[in-house]
Write a structure and sequence with these properties.
This protein is of the alpha+beta class. The protein has a single domain, classed as Ribosomal Protein S5, domain 2 (2-Layer Sandwich), CATH 3.30.230. 38% of the residues lie in helices and 22% in strands. It is built from seven helices and nine strands, in the order βββαβαβαβββαααβα. Strands 5, 6, 7, 8 and 9 form a five-stranded mixed beta sheet that branches. The chain has a four-stranded mixed beta sheet with strand order 1-2-4-3, with helices on one face. A hairpin with a 3-residue loop joins β1 and β2. α1 packs parallel to α7 and α6 packs parallel to α7. The chain is globular. About 12% of the residues have low confidence. The chain binds manganese (II) ion (MN). Manganese (II) ion binds next to α7.
């Protein structure tokens, strides 16, 4: 089957970005945004979504990290729209439902080789809950063509003061609290997906953002998977996604 790929180049007075994406990849990536912590997040996104991603951004970091982070979300969202194409045959919903939910937790077997391979490697729905030490994050996504971001459980962190020791230890502390949301908003707008991210609990900022990016990756992977039962068909009763 043909790999779903995209190439985006987006240039403004604030950022210059190129993205090469292969949704049917192996988790390989090369990411350079000028913000080491953000590179770490996008690298683990590629790994856990099992996509191949090359991303370069030269942004106005002399101002701050805002434009770089937001615009990378926009460019990555555009890459997903382009790579998914008409969305025929995809599962569409990436799940973060309860693992014991009988409607989402189990797959009933098919007999073709393709189905067997898919079932052996596909994550169960409940896995879009991602723990990271003391944190638990959940992501539910629908590539249904309607952009919407729900961002829950993080309001108390948005205003949290970064201790002086943290600032010296890691200059990307500000990113973790303020900018993660900008990335996901940019992605949801441009990928035209319904993206629900929630921190159920957690404390350490690096862990929190990492758990969110990993849950986002797992849910994205599940949603973009091809389902052999609906090969060539749209997962919508409307006839368009
Ligand atoms: Mn980490």
């Amino acid at each position: 089957m043909k790999a779903r790929q995209a190439k985006i180049s987006r240039n403004t007075k604030e950022t210059r970005i190129t993205v090469t994406l292969n949704i049917d990849g192996q988790g390989k990536s090369s990411v350079k945004t000028g913000i080491p912590f953000f590179d770490h997040m996008l690298t683990l996104f590629a790994k856990h979504a099992t996509v191949n991603l090359q991303l370069r951004c030269r942004g106005d970091l002399e101002v701050d990290a805002h434009h770089t982070v937001e615009d990378c979300g926009i460019a990555l969202g555009q890459a997903f729209v382009q790579a998914l194409g008409d969305k025929r045959g995809i599962r569409r919903y990436g799940a973060g439902f309860h693992p014991q939910n009988p409607f989402t937790g189990l797959r009933q077997g098919g007999t073709s080789a393709e189905t067997a391979v898919d079932e052996a490697t596909a994550p169960l729905a409940g896995e879009a809950y991602v723990p990271m030490d003391e944190c638990l994050a959940r992501c539910v996504i629908d590539f249904g063509g309607r952009p919407h971001l729900v961002w829950r459980g993080l309001n108390e962190f948005a205003q949290k003061r970064v201790a002086k020791s943290e600032k010296f230890q890691d200059p990307s502390s500000a990113f973790r609290f303020g900018l993660a949301r900008e990335f996901f908003q940019g992605f949801a707008n441009e990928a035209r997906c319904n993206l629900h991210l929630e921190l159920l609990y957690g404390d350490e900022p690096h862990h929190i953002v990492e758990a969110l990016f990993k849950a986002f990756a797992r849910a994205t992977d599940a949603a973009c998977r091809r389902d052999p039962r609906i090969a060539g068909k749209l997962p919508s009763t409307k006839g368009k996604l």
